[in-house]
Amino acid sequence: MADAVIPTGVLRNLADKLYDKRKNAALEVEGIVKQLAVAGAHEKISVVINLLTTEFTYSGQENRRKGGLIGLAAATIGLTSEAAQYLEQIMPPVLNSFSDKDSRVRYYACEALYNIAKVVRGDFIIFFNQIFDALCKLSADSDANVQSAAHLLDRLVKDIVTESDQFGIEEFIPLLRERMNVLNPYVRQFLVGWITVLDSVPDIDMLGFLPDFLDGLFNMLSDSSHEIRQQADSVLSKFLQDIKNSPSVDYGRMAEILVQRAASPDEFTRLKAIIWVKYNQSLLSILFFFKQKFYGVFFLKH
């Protein structure tokens, strides 16, 4: 049935080794899907998306996988305002392609999702955790072009999240917490970037979840990269200012983290932990209960 909707020549070009042929074929797919959407031919649209998925994105041939990704993005553009109702079909093959063994396929997956996201905007938030997981891995991709593509996609996703009222911070925090002790410098920069962006959104209370990622930020203060140390220090300084006027901070959990960090072998980390305690009376009061664990750390002497 899909062959009857999309000409054989278009499907053949969609799998061609030449990018221009695949791109032109994708433009034809866009036009066909747009006509189907206008006609209300929803069943045919689903058949086309299924063909692009099963016969292309899951193919053993790299060029077919590339063509499938371009085709899915083109179909989404053709659907325009109706694209959201087909995301359950469109998103899984794109997300799956982020882990493709071929770097060019991973690159096209970034490009495809970028174009899809521009069309559906906040409607793809239901897939945010999978997208975040993929972006986290791609931030440290072995291919520089994939890293660049992932960076552009990451910026768009951040823009969409900050303007969306569907984003669930409660579902996101466990994902963030699991990754905070990763040592890869690209991943660390990626995580700090997300913490910074989410903290800038008035309707998102990052302070309420601070203990979930505080230890990871302190851990970054001893990173070998000056840039990462500086970024982590900047974020911590911002949070230190904010918690003074926040009723939602869990001081008990924070105190446990600071006890450990105040005894860190890294001097800068120790100093930062002491500063946090010294300039916050609520933490200072709690930490008196932990003084035996401090082994005489000098914050009690000052």
Output the keywords:
disordered C terminus, mainly alpha, 16 helices, 302 residues
Architecture overview:
This protein is an all-alpha fold and 302 residues long. Helices cover 70% and strands 0% of the residues. It is built from 16 helices and no strands. Helix 5 (62-79) runs antiparallel to helix 6, helix 6 runs antiparallel to helix 7 and helix 11 packs parallel to helix 13. It is elongated, with a radius of gyration of 24 Å. The model is unreliable at 294-302 (pLDDT under 50).
Q: Give the SSE string.
A: HHHHHHHHHHHHHHHH
Estimated helix fraction: 55-70%
Q: Helical segment tally?
A: 16
Secondary structure: number of strands: 0
Average pLDDT score = 91
Q: What's the end-to-end separation, in Å? A: 79 Å
